[in-house]
Structure formats: structure tokens, C-alpha cells
Amino acid sequence: MTIISFMTTKGGGGKTTSALLTATILAEQGARVCVFDADPNQPIVEWAETANKPEKLTVIGDVTEENIQELIETHEQTAQFVIIDLEGSANLTAAYAMAVSDAILVPLQGSKLDAKEAIKTISFIKRQEKNQRRILPTRVFWARMPPAYITKAARELAAQFEGAGIQFMNTRLIEREAFKGIVNFGQTLSTLTNADVPGLDKARENAMTFVAELIDLLKRDPT
How far does Cα 159 stand from its chain's mean position? Predict the structure, then answer.
């Protein structure tokens, strides 16, 4: 079983959307996927209640520090992937999820405010690394980015993070109506239609490239 955690302390940073994109694409490719919704607002649970979701996708809500370990043990025999949408704060639930994750993904947007929040998340991860005396498999990725270019502010932020030894994924998740559409229409990228949202083909290509890169990273850097 592979465990992938998404975490950021900033709301609206693309964490839940990225987790949902990853989970639905993997499930539609035939993998058995379980999503743990550890966000108090339960956005993925709410989506799953009425969504046209893949048969191989299961969503578990009310994930807390009291039950996350038991839930992982329960699903490790049946799920090929567990995707954890973590609460936007440094707590015991996040600490445990990080300890067992094969990948920890931190979304970042190209603003100083987002950088400050991302640094909080990275600082928490670094503290967990000291506690566990090992390097945690963390990647930062650009989320909700403009399609045509990377801003000067984003380039400067990237240089700061890379200078600190924090690795980025190559694939940026672009700001697209189709990504919002999976929540707004209760669908996945494969079940949305061009009548629902514009630019669907480009959104699908972008998301598939992101997931393919993630899988390649997991194969090359197994924990």
C-alpha cells in the first residue's frame, strides 16, 4: 500500500483539489484507492455523497488522531493507494500521517503569503524529521498557477525553496475551470463534458501528467 499525504496550512491553496484529482485518476486507472478526509470541513466526504465517483474509490471521513492509525491498518490489505487530505494545521493527525507516508505533497502558489504558509508546513515537516531521525519524502508543487507563464515572484520563491534543499515537482497544476468542475458538478475529469466546463482536454492532460510524475517519483524513491 502506498500512502500519499497532502498538506498546507493555507486555505484555498489547492490541497483538497489536488488530492481529489490524484485519487480519482488513480481509481479510474484501475487502482483501489481510499481517501482519508482529515479536514474538519470534510470537503471530499461532501463531494462523495452525491458524486459520480469511480467504483474503486472509497472515501473515509472523520479521520482524527484517535483513529488514523487504526484506519490505515484496516485498509492496508485492500487499498493500493491511501490519499490523505490533512487538516491545515500542525497536529498529531498530520504527524502520524507524515510518519507513514510514501510522499508528502505541499501545494504552493506564487505569492509571499503562500510562501509564508508553505514555510510553516515545511518547518513542521522538518521537526518531524528530527523526531524520527530520517528524511521524509516531501515535494512542493505549484498549484492554481496561470497557464502561460511563471511570475517573477514565483521564480524568486522557487529559488528560495530550492536553495533550502526543498525539491519541487516539475508539473504545475494550472488554474482551470475543469478542476473546479469536479466539485461543482460532482464528477471526475473523465466524466465531465465540454458542456460543463471549458478547456477540458488541457485540464485532463495537466492532471494526468501530474499523477504520472508522482507515480514515477514513488517508483524511483521508494520509502
Answer: 22
Domain of 92?
2-220
CA 79 and chain centroid, separation: 17
CB 117 within 8 A of CB 48: no
Q: Which residue has cell 490523505?
A: 84
Query: Minimal CA–CA distance to 38: which of 60, 10, 20, 8?
Result: 60
Determine what percent of the chain is predicted with pLDDT higher than 90.
Answer: 57
**Distance separating alpha carbons of residues 48 and 120, to the nearest angstrom:** 30
CATH code of the domain containing 86? 3.40.50.300
* Spatial distance between the Cα atoms of 34 and 46, rounded to a whole number of angstroms: 15
- Give the residue from 58, 34, 20, 29 showing the smallest Cα distance to 185: 20
Please count the structural domains in the chain.
1
CB 186 within 8 A of CB 47: yes
pTM for the model stands at 0.91
> How confident is the model over 126-167, as pLDDT tens digits?
888 888 888 888 898 988 887 766 677 777 777 777 776 778
Q: Is residue 187 helix, strand or coil?
A: coil
